[in-house]
UniProtKB/TrEMBL annotation:
<dbReference type="Pfam" id="PF01557">
    <property type="entry name" value="FAA_hydrolase"/>
</dbReference>
<dbReference type="InterPro" id="IPR036663">
    <property type="entry name" value="Fumarylacetoacetase_C_sf"/>
</dbReference>
<protein>
    <submittedName>
        <fullName>Fumarylacetoacetate hydrolase family protein</fullName>
    </submittedName>
</protein>
<comment type="similarity">
    <text>Belongs to the FAH family.</text>
</comment>
<feature type="domain" description="Fumarylacetoacetase-like C-terminal">
    <location>
        <begin position="78"/>
        <end position="280"/>
    </location>
</feature>
<keyword id="KW-0479">Metal-binding</keyword>
<dbReference type="InterPro" id="IPR051121">
    <property type="entry name" value="FAH"/>
</dbReference>
<keyword id="KW-0378">Hydrolase</keyword>
<dbReference type="GO" id="GO:0016787">
    <property type="term" value="F:hydrolase activity"/>
</dbReference>
<dbReference type="InterPro" id="IPR011234">
    <property type="entry name" value="Fumarylacetoacetase-like_C"/>
</dbReference>
Length: 282
């Protein structure tokens, strides 16, 4: 099961994407639901949609290629990012791999969706994009151990995380500023439910994440080569503060690319999706 949001005449509409049947409005499958994908995660009913989609009439579905995807939702309570989590990427930056997750937070004003432009802010002369595997929390998570952490994850999705690197280079304490310009977090096109991913891959370790610029794969690596696995990241941050349904954890990148106006940045994750955004001058 995949949850998403599409642009249509009503604005942004939550949908279910069924790999075999197409796209159906959540309201068609669950008429008593009102609200966005975030609300579905919050009230715990998102998992019911898969069964409803299997028995729904064909008329409620439309072809996936006929819709334009938006960001799955716009107002998560928290967005965590993780720096230097792939061992090889830390080596690229001549940085040592941290002994604990090097995490930071982003505001929801940074969110854009598939196809939306990434604006390069005039305050920065070197902006990079980083492809990442994102996790979305599905139920309240506090003080959990790694072996139980994925039970609290609803699903995964592609992410493009942007950084004003020249600002960061001036002082590492400028990390929050360098990460928080508008358009500096794209995610989508859909949230893939964790059981579907686990069934396809037998776990998360073999998932490959690729940073792509203008159609060329610049860096790729598998989740197995993370310093801190997704389950550990969920556990670690749950011991800092409560994680609520819809909270996002971006798990780090295999490598970044420098952006210029006219470029197209992509995150490709086989079996999960491809996220693509054009780059424009801000």
């Amino acid at each position: 099961m995949r949850l998403a949001t599409v642009h249509d005449a009503r604005g942004e509409t939550p949908v279910l994407v069924h790999p075999g049947r197409g796209v159906a409005d959540v309201a068609e499958l669950m008429p008593d639901h009102s609200g966005d994908v975030m609300a579905l995660l919050g009230d715990g009913r998102a998992r019911r949609l898969a069964a409803l989609a299997e028995t729904a009439p064909a008329a409620v579905f439309r072809p996936e290629e006929s819709v334009r995807f938006a960001a799955p939702y716009r107002r998560p309570r928290k967005i965590w990012g993780i720096g230097l989590n792939y061992v090889a990427h830390a080596g690229d930056l001549t940085e040592s791999v941290p002994e604990e997750p090097a995490s930071f937070m982003k505001g929801d004003h940074t969110i854009i969706g598939p196809g939306d432009p990434i604006p390069l802010p005039p305050q920065s002369e070197r902006v990079t994009a980083e492809a990442e595997l994102g996790l979305v929390i599905g139920r309240l998570c506090r003080n959990v151990e790694p072996e139980d952490a994925l039970d609290h994850v609803f699903g995964v999705f592609p992410v493009l995380d942007q950084t004003a690197e020249d600002i960061l280079a001036r002082n590492p304490r400028f990390l929050t500023r360098s990460k928080n310009f508008p358009g500096f977090l794209s995610f989508g096109p859909a949230i893939v439910a964790l059981p579907e991913v686990m069934s396809a891959f037998g776990g998360l370790a073999d998932i490959e994440v690729s940073t792509v610029l203008n159609g060329e794969v610049r860096r790729r690596d598998t989740v197995a080569h993370m310093r801190f696995a997704p389950a550990f990241l969920v556990s670690f941050h749950s011991k800092v503060m409560p994680l609520f349904p819809g909270d996002i954890i971006c798990t780090g990148t295999p490598g970044a690319v420098v952006l210029s106006p006219g470029d197209v940045a992509e995150c490709r994750i086989d079996g999960v999706g491809t996220l693509r955004n054009p780059v424009v001058a801000g």
